[in-house]
Amino acid sequence: QQHLQDEVLPKFHAACMVCLEEEGSFGTTNHYFDSKFREDEICPPAFIQKVLSKAQAIENYNSIPASKLQSNLERWLNEARQEVASSTCHADLLTNQKKRLFAAVRAHFDVEKKTFVDNILKKTKDILIQGRKDWIDRCLLRSDEILQAAGEDEDIKQMREDLLNRVERLEECMSLLRDVPLPSNDQVTSEPEN
Q: Three-state SS for 52?
């Protein structure tokens, strides 16, 4: 525990602070940004809410045949799409641009959050988990006290050596027995002469 508090945690804290500073100064945009931005364009949250509000009218989905549920779902999706498209078409240019800008900001925030969390998880793995492994390898596995406690008792050690010697002697006996010629079938089946 002392190793954790003295060495690992300060190193982890410093690495997390570096991640935080880096995120504040530059951030990253990547395919995740594009997918999040497209996600809002293709299926905006308002569209999802409209479909869900229409679906709430049904109390028990299990009692409806699949074909009817499928046709209802198709109808709801089309109605929700038309409502969202209609509200977008009837809005002025400034309102539509605000919505697009808001979607871009939200996508950028999602990217920054994911990147920051990914970096912190990487630092956690690199410093905390690897630090624990290093501590086990360096401190625990080389500790004289642990090595002495992990050693074999003298009685067990002596018994093991005696058994190994016995196995060796038995193998020598078996080897000698293999070298003894066996009588042939003719000698075994023939009767002794008088």
A: helix
User: From CA 137, how far away is CA 143, in angstroms rounded?
Assistant: 10
pLDDT tens string 108-155:
788 777 777 777 778 878 777 777 787 777 777 777 777 777 777 888
Rounded Cα distance between 70 and 55, Å, is: 12
What is the rounded CA–CA span in Å between residue 98 and residue 60? 39
Quickly tell me which residue has 């871009």 as its tokens. 104
Q: What angle do CA 90, 91, 94 make, to 5 degrees?
A: 150
192 phi, psi to nearest 5 deg: -70, 145
Both tokens assigned to 18: 């570096």
Tens digit of pLDDT for each residue in 152-166?
788 888 999 999 999
How far is the C-alpha of 44 from the C-alpha of 49, rounded, in Å?
Answer: 9
